[in-house]
Structure to design on (317 residues):
């Protein structure tokens, strides 16, 4: 039986693995069969992760985290979790290949998935003009024209942030009313670099190697048109990946896993959560990494308690 199993291999999962491994807990990391490394595997250059003054490519950063975890004894399995048994003192994790792993503690760090528009070329041009993160990629669009899709706070925030770099932002929203808060909406509206395009859906993203434009349709009149843009920022919300723990762990109103205060302790003893799956607000690699640290330390303390309790029971016998 393992001390701890970490589910997820983004910055939260790998940082938890580094800390747990250095605490001699020999963690098993379930890294996913396809999406190992998390969202940073889909980004290009990361310029805001401390310690890399020249920037680092997202996949390189994740490879370094993985190597750092392995160096201290973390074992990584590239498979998907298909089911979990989390309620007893022994946790069990079953993988797609049928393997079943047991541990005293589980750290759940499955991240969140940005919602996609579902357009044919969206994935192909991801990292080549299509982005889900202005903080990460905005600086690559200096003096360009970009589109931000969405009508919530994320879209307002992305559009406003992008005006630091770009010449023009088209804020494209499919309806007439906004989910965004008044303050953020007013700020975006007051910015002369942002042009609001309402009642409009994006139907196509054009570009061979890089994004060159988008095809739009007016949701009221049905009229079609194209816009020349070099960037498309999709800001239509994100969903924490909690499908494996629905009905098992307590969730918040926002759909993230509920944790106790600033800790990573979930509603079940021995189960800890970290990264975007607990964070509806900040969603940065560095905050996820910090959250992974918290989870590893919480798991370590929990395991010490379990160990002390079993030693006391053995002595009593
Ligand atoms: P929201 O769910 O609030 O808004 C999503 C927006 O995207 C809506 O306007 C929705 O349109 C639109 N949308 C959804 N699906 C599609 C689609 N397929 N095609 C086109 N448009 C689509 O998500 P956010 O990420 O904006 O915000 C999530 C939470 O995070 C909120 O609670 C928000 O307040 C918070 N947040 C806070 C920030 C801050 O305070 N600094 C910054 C960012 C987020 P429609 O309205 O027509 O359904």
């Amino acid at each position: 039986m393992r001390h701890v199993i970490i589910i997820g291999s983004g910055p939260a999962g790998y940082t938890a693995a580094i800390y747990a491994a250095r605490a001699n807990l020999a963690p098993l990391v379930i890294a996913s069969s396809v999406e190992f490394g998390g969202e940073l595997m889909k980004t290009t250059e990361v310029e805001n992760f401390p310690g890399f003054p020249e920037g680092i490519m997202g996949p390189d950063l994740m490879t370094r985290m993985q190597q750092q975890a392995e160096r201290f004894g973390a074992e990584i399995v590239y498979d998907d979790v298909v089911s979990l048994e989390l309620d007893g003192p022994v946790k069990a994790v079953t993988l797609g290949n049928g393997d079943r792993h047991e541990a005293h503690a589980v750290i759940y760090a499955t991240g969140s998935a940005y919602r996609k528009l579902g357009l044919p070329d969206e994935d192909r041009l991801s990292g080549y003009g299509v982005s889900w993160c202005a903080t990460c990629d905005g600086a690559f669009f200096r003096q360009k024209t970009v589109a931000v899709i969405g009508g919530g706070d994320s879209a307002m925030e992305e559009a406003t942030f992008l005006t630091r770099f770009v010449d023009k932002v088209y804020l494209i929203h499919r309806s007439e009313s906004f989910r965004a808060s008044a303050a953020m909406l007013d700020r975006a509206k007051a910015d002369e670099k942002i042009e609001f395009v309402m009642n409009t859906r994006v139907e196509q993203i054009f570009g061979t190697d890089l994004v060159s434009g988008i095809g739009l349709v007016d949701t009221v009149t049905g009229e079609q048109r194209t816009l020349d843009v070099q960037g498309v920022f999709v800001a239509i919300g994100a969903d924490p990946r909690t499908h494996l723990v629905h009905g098992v762990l307590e969730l918040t109103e926002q759909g993230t896993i509920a944790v106790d205060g600033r800790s990573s302790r979930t509603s079940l003893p021995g189960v800890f959560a970290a990264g975007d799956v607990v964070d509806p607000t900040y969603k940065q690699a560095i905050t996820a990494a910090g959250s992974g640290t918290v989870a590893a330390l919480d798991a370590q303390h929990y395991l010490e308690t379990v160990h002390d309790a079993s030693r006391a029971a053995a002595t009593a016998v």
The longest strand covers residues 100-108.
